[in-house]
């Protein structure tokens, strides 16, 4: 398996965690994702991947975009250990937590959205930081309410083993802790507790951006 | 089953289509989603649904957020007719198309993002229309490339029966045709052809915003 991605991409980070939890190894293909220059903008990358994003998993002839599609695929071809519970309603709860991160928290803060804010509205680093903090604040406040009131929440987002929801939560929390955002995690104690529980597991720790071969120190945005 | 949603919400529209394709009926609970006033902003709605969004499916005690989580749930409890193909790689392709719409096309144009653009950057209707058109253009251009080059594309996004990908594509195209966006669909002939094929099916036609009991004529944004 080849995984096209980037150390600091939250969406790639999700897939790294899922692969590590399932004990799958992969060849890492770096796709640079920097404010000033991204491989995504290059015609040859778009010819390879029309969605012009990361991550992309290439496995046995299949080329798969979108972190959740990749993780559902891994769950189907390598069911153990499961990252989704068995009962339909529980699976729905886990997917709903992951999708809240994927559809409502991460997208407004993506590099391509931030670049448009700068180009169209003149947003500077201070405005971009405030913008990212806003989506963190409303997002984690919502997740805290959803997680803290449910008996289904355990050591992790759902019960006492990690699921797809944790694969999405951890990169989002990690991203919120970068100096340019610097969200105060203590406002969301359940989110903070689950984040810490996850990082005690080698699969999460090994998947951190700073533990990737293409790591670079962040320089803003 | 109860479906909390709104006629013009693209995310609710996705679930209506999936339910209609599966022959499932539901009680519709309107949650207003207007520029000037939304039920999402109300404390009692947030107490019910911490994610403060639509759609929400309530079924047999389960309360499920996020359109894709709802549709995957419906696929599990009511497998026929299937909205996902059988093979893992094909399922991944369908999910990746749906998730591209869900994570990259719709979110930057959501009501909550547009409101922030107005509040933080003074974006007026003209700027908001241009913003929405931008995400339509890059999104449909990517989808056109992905769909047109693949032998897996048929009458619909994947083969000759509708799948989850079509449940996501149709509301996104529909939204792009509103007067405030008015994207030129002829630029994306495969997308246009699939959209038309879908609307020939009663399940899609019946799920259109104008065929819902809470329909109101659009007034901008």
Strand order, biggest sheet of chain A? 2-1-3-4
Assembly type: homodimer
**What structural class do you assign from the helix and strand content of chain A?**
alpha+beta
Ranges of chain A with pLDDT <50 over ≥5 residues? none
Number of strands of chain A: 4
Using the alpha-carbon principal axes, give the shape of chain A. globular
Please report which band the strand proportion of chain A falls in: under 5%, 5-15%, 15-25%, 25-35%, 35-45% or over 45%: 5-15%
Helix-strand pattern of chain A, N to C?
Answer: EHEHEEHHHHHHH
Question: What is the averaged pLDDT score of chain A?
Answer: 96
Count up the helices of chain A. Answer: 9
Question: How much helix, percentage-wise, in residues of chain A?
Answer: 40-55%
Main sheet makeup of chain A: 4 strands, mixed
Report how far the terminal alpha carbons of chain A are from each other. 31 Å
**CA-based gyration radius of chain A:** 17 Å
Biggest interchain interface, per-side counts: A-B, 51 and 50 residues
């Amino acid at each position: 398996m080849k995984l096209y991605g980037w150390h600091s991409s939250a969406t790639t980070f999700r897939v790294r965690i899922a692969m590590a939890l399932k004990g799958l190894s992969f060849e890492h293909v770096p796709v640079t994702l920097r404010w000033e220059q991204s491989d995504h903008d290059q015609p040859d990358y778009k010819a390879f991947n029309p969605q012009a994003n990361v991550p992309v998993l290439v496995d046995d002839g299949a080329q798969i975009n979108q972190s959740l599609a990749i993780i559902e695929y891994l769950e189907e071809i390598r069911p153990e250990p499961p990252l989704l519970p068995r009962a339909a309603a529980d699976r729905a709860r886990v997917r709903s937590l992951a999708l809240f991160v994927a559809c409502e928290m991460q997208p407004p803060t993506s590099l391509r959205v931030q670049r448009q804010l700068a180009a169209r509205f003149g947003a500077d680093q201070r405005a971009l930081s405030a913008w990212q903090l806003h989506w963190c604040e409303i997002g984690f406040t919502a997740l805290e309410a959803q997680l803290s009131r449910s008996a289904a929440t355990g050591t992790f987002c759902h019960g006492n083993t990690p699921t797809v929801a944790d694969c999405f939560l951890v990169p989002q929390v990690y991203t919120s802790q970068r100096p340019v955002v610097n969200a105060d995690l203590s406002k969301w104690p359940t989110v903070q507790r689950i984040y810490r529980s996850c990082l005690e597991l080698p699969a999460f720790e090994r998947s951190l951006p700073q533990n990737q071969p293409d790591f670079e120190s962040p320089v803003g945005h």
